[in-house]
Specification:
By secondary structure, the chain is an alpha+beta fold. The chain is 30% helix and 14% strand. It is built from two helices and three strands; from the N terminus they run E-E-E-H-H. The protein has helices spanning 66-87, 90-96; strands at residues 21-25, 30-34, 42-45. The protein has a three-stranded antiparallel beta sheet with strand order 1-2-3, with no helix packed on it. A hairpin with a 7-residue loop joins strand 2 (30-34) and strand 3. The longest helix is centred in the C-terminal third of the chain and has 22 residues, at 66-87. It comes from Daphnia sinensis. Residues 18-51 form the Integrase p58-like C-terminal domain. This is Integrase p58-like C-terminal domain-containing protein.
Length: 97
């Protein structure tokens, strides 16, 4: 049973934690679970386990990544500057030197 924190409604506290990896199913209706690799295992009764279905997993929809947008803008600016420099004829550069 999870204890509620001060200032947090009991209704808003998640009822389950996880997901856990099932390592071993015992004959006495207990299951050995582990949350992360390398962490300590726990022995729990099967009535405390809730199955995890693929539809329950939160999947982020592809969205705009601002870092990529900034990099694209910088690349476009650099490309425009390069094109403008190339528009200057090589003859005019040689004569000005």
């Amino acid at each position: 049973m999870r204890t509620s924190l001060t200032g947090i409604s009991k209704k808003l506290i998640p009822r389950f934690i996880g997901p856990f990896r099932i390592l071993k199913v015992n004959n006495n209706s207990t299951v050995e679970i582990q949350q992360d690799v390398g962490k300590q295992t726990q022995l729990v009764h099967v009535n405390r386990i809730k199955p995890l279905f693929e539809s329950m997993i939160w999947k982020d929809e592809p969205g705009v990544e601002f870092l990529d947008a900034r990099i694209e803008k910088q690349a476009e600016k650099l490309l425009r500057e390069t094109v403008n420099e190339l528009k200057i004829s090589p003859l005019s550069l040689e004569t000005s030197v």
